[in-house]
Amino acid sequence: MKTIAAAVIALSVTLSGAKADSWTTYRIAETGTSVDVPVSVFTEIAGKPDGYGQQFRTSDGWADLTVQAVSNRQHLSPAQFLARKDPPPGIIYKRIAPNFFVVSSIKRDKIWYDRCNFSRGYVHCVLINYPAAEKRQWDHLVTRISHSLSAD
User: How many structural domains is the chain composed of?
Assistant: First the structure.
């Protein structure tokens, strides 16, 4: 129990210490996707997603971030694309607009957040998974990441 408490405190300290100078812009050259990434929080490379991009995670593995761009050769709308992804039931938040969608929910004590923007034949996405018990500490990070997602 002490180990879990120490890890939670360490993560909270990391999150509260995420300052503007600890962010960088991650770019996918092939698609023009760009997004602000808090490098003081997502410190490890965690693999490659489908399409183009990169997966990152916290050093303790409790949270992860995927920056991804996939082709939209069929020119699917955000609603059509989301329906084809077959999202799990129980979505808590869903917003679908003409050029993006956002969905979020809770699964196994983690909040999962998915935003995808549509432009120039690609779907540009950020997917973030983080502890539900730490929602307040993550809100500002998720907001900045989400709002910074763009395609040049």
Answer: 1
